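Q: What changes when copper (II) ion is included in the input?
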Amino acid sequence: MITRRTVLSGLGSAAMLSQLPTRAWADVPAKALQMPLLVDAVETGRFAMTAQAGITNFLGRAESRTWGFEQPFLGPTLRLHHRSETAAEVRNGLDEAVSVHWHGLVVPGDVDGGPHQLVQPGQTWSPVLPIDQPPATVWYHSHTHARTAEQVQMGLAGVLHLTDGQDDARGLPTAYGVDDLTLVLQDRRFDRDGRMAYRVSMPDQMMGFLGDTMLVNGQVGATAVVPKGLVRLRLLNGSNARIYTLALSDGRPMHLIGTDTGLLDRPIALETLTLAPGERYEVLVDFGDGMEVSLLSGQNINEGMMGGMMGGRRASGPPFEVLPFVVDPQVPVRVSRLPEALGGSRPNMSSSDAVERRITLDMAMGPGMMMRRAENRFSINGQPFDMSTLNFTTRVGQLEKWTVSANMMMHPFHVHGVTFQVLSENGQAPRPQNTGWKDTLLVDGAAEILMRFDRPAAEARPYMFHCHILEHEDGGMMGQFAVKG
Ligand SMILES: [Cu+2]
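A: The predicted holo structure follows.
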């Protein structure tokens, strides 16, 4: 079970949190949440970053070996124009091969950064990204087959903001780190000395690796300081396996404004928001009453075999704190009214002439699981991922309807090179949070998704489709496909 080790050690439940005395502004915060460094490539159309090793002291007790881009852990937030030819330069300063996949960018297979585009130690990869898609919060992370889970755990991930420069006109907060917060949610384990530890047991591989300590932007125990107005939270689940069910401690709404790959037409007020690995959601929260409030999460809901055998998938244990907020009345308020319309287009594609595919996310069970090689324990349609096997080919302009089924556990399903619309979840209309454009969907049972491929991917540089529980992905729950131009 996850708890906050610092600041609020021992406190975990919403009820207990609500018993906390209201702290005066002068008392806090000891440790204000920091944003990742912002690199603005909108004007220049280019950015460069180096994957490097570093040292991070997460808990103030011991130094951990970590990896990052341009910094010891994680990477900068890159702001890119949503219609641009952006020149990227990724240097590998580590001593093993890595890749950089632009998760949510709809770019051709040869610059997608999947496992066929490894950057060897000392080498530089220089893809030009032909970006042409709606504004969104997307991200980047390493995607080296069978090494993704550990490389991301070590810190090879960061956030991309795709912008059209119109968010002020939309009435949305845009001041980076002031009223526009980028929040990378991750859980990690630490050993007795306080060093980050990634040791994967058999249950960890089955369930996905869960941490016991919450990190936001790589920081433990930080408090976000916000103005007395509307604040935009760009939430990324950068965890290997943990699914967050987010809510604010006093029950105030989160106004959903954007899903993985674009803004909604208008805000949707939500009390809880499920955030699975790989997903992004943008919400507005009103801090106009000046009260402090905490972002909480329920315990991981993906109990898998255990939960499945017990006939349920309930989370066990009380909610835990993800991030406390305090209001600083000195910070000028830029936005205080919720915008009525956001101008984002809600998906509306007809599925009448779509090619249909069935995708089953499989786990080997019982003793068979143990006997298989680590990278063959999971599969899609019975086939564990194989770098040299193309699972299918489609073509540019093709509309496809996929029925995706998840057995035994929930699996966050991600497709490269496309954004999709959710047609149904278990035969019902999609949940409100899944009514916008998506590239990753938490499949719990069965879901139908609809998409059109607009970019090519050659057989030698195919797109991936996979579970975003990274231990499952590395364990073989991945496939690849080409898109003929
Ligand atoms: Cu999975």
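Observations recorded in class: The chain has six helices and 31 strands.
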